Amino acid sequence: MAAPQLTPLEEALSHLLSQAKGLDTRETVELPDSLHRILAEDHHVPADVPPADNSSVDGYAVRFEDVHPGRAIPVSIRIPAGHPPGELAPGTAARIFTGSEIPAGANAVVMQERVDASDDGIVIHTDVSEGQNIRRRGQDLTEGCMALPQGTLIRPQEMGLLASMGFARVPVQRRLRVAILTTGDELVDPGKPLAAGQIYNTNRYTLLGLLAQAGCEVTLCESLADDRTATRDTLFRAADASDLVITTGGVSVGEEDHVRVVLEESSTLSLWRLAIKPGKPLAFGHMNDTPVIGLPGNPASVLVTFLMVAMPFIRKCQGRARLTPTGETLPADFSVDEPSIRREFIRARKACLPDRCTLEAYPNQNSGVLSSACWAGGLAVVPENTRVSPGDLLTYYSFEELLA
Ligand SMILES: Nc1nc2c(c(=O)[nH]1)N[C@H]1C(S)=C(S)[C@@H](COP(=O)(O)OP(=O)(O)OC[C@H]3O[C@@H](n4cnc5c(N)ncnc54)[C@H](O)[C@@H]3O)O[C@H]1N2
Ligand code: MOO
């Protein structure tokens, strides 16, 4: 029997994305609870950050025109950080600290290591230029500018930036509710002993981690035996409770691949043999209007298909601006001698010397080898029907970008 044709990733993705519905509801959360949530409104800068010019060092604020080699300048004021700076009298210096506001009249700060201080004042032993060691008002964020657009994933740095603008509460999208169903008689949860023929359920935990990083709420996380009725019942229950159901396993061609069969009877199933490696079989359908993405069972295939297929779908539902990764171009430090008709996502990492970075590949790229992904920093893309020699340029998606 001839194998059905392979579908390009873009074709499957465009079908999937055309079915992704945006989330309609939002909520407001306290800033500390906003990590991994999606911003639901554009955030413009309400006032300059920092709000005033301030010192980037511990030292002395002066008017640079007052500095003459060997001549002492009296210290007239002391300005601890957090206190109003006042005004600097002409011909004098202000004792100042990192983060202290610059007093009116001063236009430079000299580090204390460059100064001799005595009862007569300070003698400066260095050239002083206008503006030195002054962090300008608004250097981080300028009033009125767009700081964070709607659809931004809030990472630790965005939490900090929101705090720097004074936002204590943040409007965020409702979390996308996602159910995880792993399938297979062989699966046992960690913590229990393995009997013959059994393996530990890996995908459940990979997906829990991926969905947490993607800002989703996991509604239900169950492991299904290879049983058609149980698969059907659980798929309906999961669909009822969720905006999206993700399954792993059971989408290939065997008669024990019940997810495929149940989706076939109950919905408009699209079943693809994707032209990507790993991750060939992929199912997409609906149970009672809830989208179901059926990922293959192999643990490395789950990671790759989640990142390349499910993640853009999730991003679209979340109203994110960027759906697919941009990547960077780097030379390979490995070879692919046998070209594949499937686009290959090689678990790879950057190896950097002072002058250039190359991509190293994990030696075993089998779709059952998840340690490849723990070793790797991301995915290097080998296009369809392409041999690779060291030095050839490849697109590389870091895991950080894929999950940002
Ligand atoms: N005759 C063919 N057989 C297979 C083909 C094919 O085209 N023709 N494709 C192969 C490829 S490629 C893949 S990928 C798999 C996909 O199969 P399924 O999605 O139906 O997945 P399963 O058969 O259920 O499992 C595959 C593999 O992964 C292990 N697995 C499954 N779930 C988990 C889990 N939660 N944690 C850890 N490991 C899991 C499972 O034990 C299998 O070893 O089909 C190939 N076969
Ligand atoms: O399509 Mo599979 O994930 O290569 O083993």
Mean pLDDT across the residues is 94
Which superfamily, in CATH terms, is the homologous superfamily of the largest domain? Answer: MoaB/Mog-like domain
Number of domains: 4
- Global Rg: 29 Å
Strand order of the largest sheet: 16-13-17-21-20-18
Total E-strand runs: 26
Short descriptors:
404 residues; alpha/beta; Molybdenum Cofactor Biosythetic Enzyme, Chain A; Molybdopterin biosynthesis moea protein, domain 2; Molybdopterin biosynthesis moeA protein, domain 3; 4 domains; 6-stranded mixed sheet; binds ligand LQZAQKY5; binds molybdate ion; molybdenum cofactor biosynthesis; transferase
Description of the molecule:
The chain has 404 residues and is of the alpha/beta class. The chain is built from 8 helices and 26 strands. It has helices at residues 9-18, 156-164, 203-213, 228-240, 258-266, 299-318, 371-375, 399-403, and strands at 26-30, 43-44, 54-55, 59-62, 75-79, 93-96, 108-111, 115-118, 121-124, 134-135, 146-148, 169-173, 177-183, 187-188, 199-200, 217-224, 244-248, 270-273, 276-277, 281-287, 290-295, 328-331, 343-352, 357-361, 378-382, 393-398. Strands 16-13-17-21-20-18 form a 6-stranded mixed β-sheet, with helices on both faces. A hairpin with a 4-residue loop joins strand 23 (343-352) and strand 24 (357-361). Helix 1 packs across helix 6 and helix 3 runs parallel beside helix 6 (299-318). The chain starts with 8 loop residues before the first helix and ends with a helix. The site of molybdate ion has 8 residues, from loops.
